[in-house]
Write a structure and sequence with these properties.
The protein is mainly β. The protein contains no helices and 4 strands. Helices cover 0% and strands 24% of the residues.
């Protein structure tokens, strides 16, 4: 199984047009789950960047979370007791995506697979 960041050197994304202008701390997070079958086995790789958003977006941001504490060692997507049985679906830890209705997607062997 190959995930969206397999051998990636850059990660491009588009902010929703409804993002209000302002200064933001963008948190990019990679989560290695190859040892996630045991408590504390998942490995987090985090980087942050200060970004300035311009434009006229009028969306209301949310949900917001606080780090540390947004999720724990036994949260869904962090602790996966049956990791070595075939994973059919993966639910990322943390809050729902913004804006409402945004779908999470993963890459499987080079093809985009969206949850049903």
């Amino acid at each position: 199984m190959k995930w969206a960041t397999y051998r990636a050197t850059t990660f491009n994304f588009v902010l929703p047009s409804s993002t209000p202008p302002g200064e933001y701390l963008l948190r990019a997070e990679g989560l290695a789950i190859h040892a996630a079958q045991k408590m504390g086995g998942a490995q987090f790789y985090v980087a942050c960047a200060q970004i300035r958003v311009t434009g006229n977006g009028k969306g209301v941001l949310g949900p917001s979370v606080v780090f540390p504490g947004a999720y724990t060692a036994n949260s869904t997507g962090v602790l996966i007791p049956k990791i070595w049985s075939r994973i059919e679906e993966y639910e990322s830890p943390g809050p729902r995506l913004w804006p409402e209705g945004t779908e999470e997607s993963h890459v499987l062997d080079g093809e985009v697979k969206k949850p049903d």
